[in-house]
């Protein structure tokens, strides 16, 4: 990757994002950004990542070879980051990567260097799930009406073809959108010992968009076919109390476990022990838990939504469900049919074999390098050089 950066004159690159990897609410978007930053730093780039404040962590630091600046709160990070970039508080970068996770930084209005924008997915009905009504309307209006106009000339990167289709429907230019899937860490491989009883695993933040309540109810229905089925959900979040109440209401404490935050090693062990990895989310750009588990040979049962339809090869490496009844039926089928499970396990591994973080980081850097070339060739810059 160093050759791509050098040819385009990219030595110092700034990444701006809402949250840092060390934030208590960090998820797939933060893992994605941190992994790309690490690989770029390993390739010899001078990388700075600017995010909001992370609880219990200093404002400045280094991680995996790149610089981290964590300042301002959840909402102030947007104007303060823009101001810092305009003032060149941390120097003038050769390129900028805006990671748009919900609310954009509006980099087209202030950035004066080549840039690309990583938009994991369209939020759509997520706004109503995570914000009060008035703020939800603002977020929805910005995403559907304002941002597509402001970003119409920007080089956009998203994770899946289905997310690209949603962006095009909003008015983004298809020729300016690259699809770059996330990678899978090499540590996710088959191994360990499969759980003695049918084990369904869900992983992610306990937030409204993940709809773990649907998964719990679907698992309860699936137990009519697979009576010894167990469900383990890894992750923390604001809905922990509500999910505990639901589990108690279903008298499911003996077979549903909320294990909270887990280490990387514990997550790998869960993937390997699971008979099925499951997601009942209503909105995803990709859902890396599905492809990480697939690399371990664990098939998926998931909702049929944008992102999932690309992360899961339906019928080959997992089964996608159109509604709650089908979600339950798929869980019952995979946990009760060893031949189906074996076929989906092999298909899951084959499907995800091509996803590597090196390819992800290289593709994003290539897009940024191409934008740097376009920037250099602009007529007004040639006039200034003359």
From TrEMBL:
The keyword Transferase applies. This is Glycosyltransferase family 4 protein. GO terms for molecular function: glycosyltransferase activity. Residues 198-350 form the Glycosyl transferase family domain. It comes from Iamia majanohamensis. Residues 27-187 form the Glycosyltransferase subfamily 4-like N-terminal domain. The keyword Ribosomal protein does not apply. SUPFAM superfamilies: UDP-Glycosyltransferase/glycogen phosphorylase. InterPro entries: Glyco_trans_1, Glyco_trans_4-like_N.
């Amino acid at each position: 990757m160093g050759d791509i950066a050098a040819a385009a004159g990219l030595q110092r690159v700034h990444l701006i994002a809402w949250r840092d990897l060390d934030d208590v609410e960090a998820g797939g978007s933060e893992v994605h950004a941190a992994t790309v930053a690490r690989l770029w730093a390993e390739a010899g780039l001078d990388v700075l990542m600017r995010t909001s404040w992370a609880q219990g962590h200093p404002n400045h630091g280094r991680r995996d070879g790149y610089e981290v600046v964590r300042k301002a709160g959840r909402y102030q990070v947007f104007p303060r980051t823009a101001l810092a970039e305009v003032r060149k508080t941390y120097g003038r970068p050769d390129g900028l990567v805006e990671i748009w996770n919900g609310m954009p930084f509006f980099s087209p209005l202030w950035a004066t260097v080549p840039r690309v924008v990583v938009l994991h997915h369209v939020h759509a009905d997520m706004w109503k799930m995570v914000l009060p009504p008035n703020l939800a309307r603002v977020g929805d209006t910005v995403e559907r009406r304002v941002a597509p106009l402001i970003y119409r000339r920007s080089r956009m990167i998203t994770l899946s073809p289905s997310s690209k289709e949603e962006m095009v429907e909003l008015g983004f230019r298809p020729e300016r959108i690259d699809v770059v899937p996330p990678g899978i860490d090499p540590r996710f491989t088959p191994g360990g010992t499969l759980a003695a009883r049918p084990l369904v695993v869900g992983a992610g933040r306990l937030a409204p968009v993940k709809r773990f309540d649907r998964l719990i109810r679907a698992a309860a229905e699936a137990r009519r076919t697979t009576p010894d089925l167990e469900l383990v959900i890894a992750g923390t979040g604001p809905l922990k109390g509500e999910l505990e109440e639901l589990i108690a209401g279903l008298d499911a404490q003996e077979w549903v476990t909320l294990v909270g935050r887990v280490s990387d090693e514990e997550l790998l062990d869960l993937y390997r022990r699971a008979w099925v990895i499951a997601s009942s989310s209503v909105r995803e750009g990709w859902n890396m838990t599905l492809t990480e588990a697939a690399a371990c040979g664990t098939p998926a049962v998931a909702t049929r939504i944008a992102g999932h339809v690309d992360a899961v090869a339906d019928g080959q490496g997992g089964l996608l469900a159109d509604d709650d009844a089908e979600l339950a039926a798929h869980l019952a089928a995979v946990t009760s049919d060893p031949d189906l499970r074996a076929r989906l396990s092999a298909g899951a591994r084959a499907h995800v074999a091509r996803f590597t973080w090196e390819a992800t980081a290289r593709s994003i850097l290539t897009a940024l390098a191409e934008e740097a070339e376009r920037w250099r060739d602009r007529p007004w810059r040639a006039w200034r050089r003359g």
